[in-house]
Amino acid sequence: MTKLPRITLAFWIMKIAATTLGETGGDLLAAILAARYLTRVSVTLLFWTAFVLTRPLGATVGDFFSKPVAKGGLGYGTIGSSLVLAGVLAALIAYTMWQGQRTTTPLSDAG
Question: pLDDT by residue (tens digit) across 5-25?
Fold first, then answer.
């Protein structure tokens, strides 16, 4: 088996797991976070586990923003909810970049 089919197979296994197992296992994220800092479990394994569990969370949040108020949502519609979620994503990326720049030690010009 060449590398590309193995990667494709791994992708589809994760995709199927994300859509089937993620619905029932979303409450385990705190356990994954604890495992990250308190155990020697593979970070890669923890990443994929969190990925599988958070897929339905994103869909639920998107539905909450787009559903009409009468049906328990915020009523932003598809475009409005996409803009809100894109704004949140952009803010998180900007914050992460700002944190990275703040903690990076600049090189000294002394020499």
Answer: 777 777 777 777 666 555 555
* For the chain, domain boundaries: 3-103
Contact present, 55 and 79 (Cβ < 8 Å): no
CA gyration radius, the chain? 19
Q: How far is CA 2 from CA 8, 11, 63, 89, in A?
A: 10, 15, 39, 35
Torsion, Cα 39 43 47 50, to 10 degrees, reads 0
Q: How far is it, in rounded angstroms, from Cα 102 to Cα 57? A: 31
Q: What CA–CA distance (Å, rounded) separates 97 from 90?
A: 11
Angle ∠(38,26,64) on CA atoms, nearest 5: 135
Which mean pLDDT values do the consecutive 10-residue runs of the chain (111 residues) have?
A: 70 70 60 89 87 77 89 91 86 86 65 50
d(CA 37, CA 42): 11
